[in-house]
Amino acid sequence: MDLVRHLRFFVAVAEEGHFGDAAARLAMTQPPVSQGLRRLEGELGIQLIRRTSRGAELTSAGRELLPRARLLVDDATRLTAEARRLAERDEALRWGAIPHLGTHLTALCAQRISTGTPAQDMVTDSASGLVAAVVAGTLDLAIVDHPCVIGAVTADAVVRLPRWVVVPAAHLAATAPRPRIRHLGDLTACLPPRAWNPPAHDQLLDGFRELGLDPTVHPVDSEPELVAAVAGGSAFGLTVHPASVHAVPGIRCVNMAPDLTSLRLRVIHKNSEHAETAAVITAALWKYAAQAGDDS
């Protein structure tokens, strides 16, 4: 006998005081409810409900057992709901992105993922942390900057996003007709920590040196830290979203050395079942990059 199911019959009849009303509440016809209650009483060896001309009344034993029956029914309902929640979480796509992808692009990727996935869980982390999570299977896919040591995971094509140089508004780089990277020589470079992705960090600094700039580097973990340093007049940084910082007092976004300053991204994944989603994200990044290039 399905004890929880039959206890539901008992609780419904006890609370409604009528077999017909209890059946309607349970979205059933009356006979199965009445038969089920009789079976429960037979199983327990005790009468729970007294059938009268006015409907249904609890016996003294029924009154004593009703609170416990309610608890069992409620616990079963919560158990079912929790199991459903866990099943939905298991079906969710688990993905991550580097922090300097920015809120706008992160939201764009989440929208694209939602078209083919019922649920998703997203985290931000360094490229090295994201690669480790994909390798370990705690993430299904991730967006990392390139170059990056990715090991045995699969990587989609590299997408190059334009980045603007963020400089103090009064600085030469913000006012010169043709600003050059070497104009930034008196400013500290605010960049993500090298440990986040040593190959990409070193490649960018090597590119600066080739253009005559060997900056002192100040690691920053977020765009607010970058904005604060630049607004203070002593630093520069890079952003893929100039509109989000251009309106900040004391700051300007300048387009210079696009081949060097662009942010190169790749979507990585471990299992072939996520290849289609990775391709969708890559296509969205390509489209955004093309539009951003036209705007620049």
Q: Which homologous superfamily in CATH is the superfamily of the largest domain? A: Periplasmic binding protein-like II
Number of H- or I-type helical stretches: 12
Structural class: alpha/beta
Low-pLDDT stretches: none
Average of the residue pLDDT scores: 90
| Major β-sheet annotation | 6 strands, mixed
Name of the CATH first level of the largest domain: Alpha Beta
Q: What is the string of helix and strand elements?
A: HHHEEHEHEHEEEEHEHEHEHEHEH
Write the CATH fold name of the largest domain: D-Maltodextrin-Binding Protein, domain 2
Radius of gyration: 31 Å
In the CATH hierarchy, what is the architecture of the largest domain at level 2? 3-Layer(aba) Sandwich
Number of strands: 13
The structural domain count equals 3
Please bin the fraction of helical residues. Answer: 40-55%
